[in-house]
Amino acid sequence: MWSMAAQRLTQITHPAATPDKLCERVEAAWSAVSQEHIQSLFESIPRRVAACNNRIVTAQRKHLDDFLRGRIIGRLECGRTQLEIFEELGIAQSIISRLWQRFQDDATSTTVSRQTVYRRLGHIGLYARRPVRCVPLTATHCRLRLTWSREHALWTPQQWSCVMLSDESRFSLQSDSRRTLIWRAPGTRYPQENPIE
């Protein structure tokens, strides 16, 4: 509607003498817009909104980089729904669905060597490392340790001399090469998800 009003105003050759005259011309140009044109603009709003949404989806499709594709596939493999991923990442469900279908098609028809996987993971900064081994401490363990330390806090050196302290060496009755590896980035040895209990 503004374009129609502006078109009428540009057809006027002589400039307005005062600001009030300019306001009168704008009001006249605005009033000259037909009701049929206003109605057709109103009826075209859903079509225009759909076109905008299509442009947004197309833009999203163009800017879906490998990292984002990996995040989406990883979430789907972990059992997340497409709707949850849409709500979290703001990627249209149709794009998520096509990406998942393409991934499943590629996964069934492509054989990749172990070395290729290691090399690709290395390119993004993930390397095979032995995980840190730790003993899981529950709330009960913590409470018992605190109680024990409070009971023995006032022991004398003579009482402690009767106690033999040993290290917590790991013993195994079966062959265990400790070759369990995890893929992690350098400097991420101790985050909660990396140590093995």
Automatic annotation (TrEMBL):
Organism ancestry: Eukaryota, Metazoa, Ecdysozoa, Arthropoda, Chelicerata
Gene Ontology molecular function terms on file: DNA binding
InterPro entries, A to Z: Homeodomain-like_sf (IPR009057), RNaseH_sf (IPR036397), Transposase_Tc1-like (IPR002492)
Organism superkingdom: Eukaryota
Compartment(s) of residence: Nucleus
One Gene Ontology term, aspect cellular component: nucleus
Protein name: Transposable element Tcb1 transposase
Pfam families per UniProt: HTH_Tnp_Tc3_2
Sequence ranges assigned to domain Transposase Tc1-like in this UniProt record: 109-152
BP terms from Gene Ontology: DNA integration; DNA transposition
